[in-house]
Amino acid sequence: MITEFRTSDAGMRLIGRLKAEGYITTHPSTEPNQNTVLIASLHAINQPNSPLGEGIDTRHLLCADVNGLLVCGVYMPQKTAKLPYWETLIAQARISGIDLLIGDFNTGNNDLDKDLKGSKFIGPEMPGRLIDSGYTDLWRSLHPGQREYSWYSCPGNNGFRLDYIFAAPELTRQAITCEFDHAPRLAGETDHSALVASLG
Predict the structure, then answer these.
(1) Distance CA 125, CA 60 (A)
(2) DSSP SS3 for 198
(3) Residues near 31 by Cβ (< 8 Å), separated by ≥ 6?
């Protein structure tokens, strides 16, 4: 799952490199200057008929069947614009049968998910409400009480955990590892750390 993907020349080069490695990709049709989500898989990708409803902008919530798993690539908009998308996931994701929600959720709680000096999140209750609907925050479930951040503000260098994998119960039971890979961010290839999970 690649968030903040753009259908620019750089984005098309990325797709080319993924295809050269055997990946199948899908993304919404967007303007080259719009951020969206790219799903890449070594298995077939089938896009269902809008399991979250027809009015959902797939730039922010892109669902696909990947090797029998219904996954949703998430790239939440900024500030209060993200709140309707959170409400949709909380109300619809479990009853729609989505197994994994993966991506940049652009919020967290105002305790462990941010530097103490960093700006407070808008909608800090949303991750907890999504968990109450039946999902598990895989990273947090394996790292209770730990602070680790996937993005840092500039200026300020305040850390925030913006990137998540939320799993339905049957997949949560299969979780072996869920770790941040900071190397691409530290190398300047991206401004977000990767989140990598292993499911049995």
Answers:
(1) 19
(2) strand
(3) 7
Placement of tokens 């029998």 in the chain:
68
For 160, the enclosing helix (H) or strand (E) is strand 159-160
46-199: CATH number? 3.60.10.10
d(CA 32, CA 36): 10
Using an 8 Å Cβ cutoff, are 50 and 79 in contact? no
Contact in structure between 168 and 138 (CB atoms under 8 Å): no
Q: Taking the CB of residue 128, how many other CB atoms lie within 10 A of it? A: 12
pLDDT tens for 107-143 read 999 999 999 999 999 999 999 999 999 999 999 999 9
Q: What is the distance between the alpha carbons of residues 20 and 59, in angstroms, rounded to a whole number?
A: 25
pTM here? 0.96
Beta 69-75 vs 100-104: how paired, if at all? parallel
Length of the chain: 200
Q: Quick one: how far is CA 117 from the chain centroid? A: 24
Q: Are 139 and 100 in contact (CB under 8 A)?
A: no
Give CA–CA dist 67/44, Å, rounded: 6
**182: Cβ contacts below 8 Å, ≥ 6 apart:** 193
Provide the residue type at 74 as one letter.
Answer: V
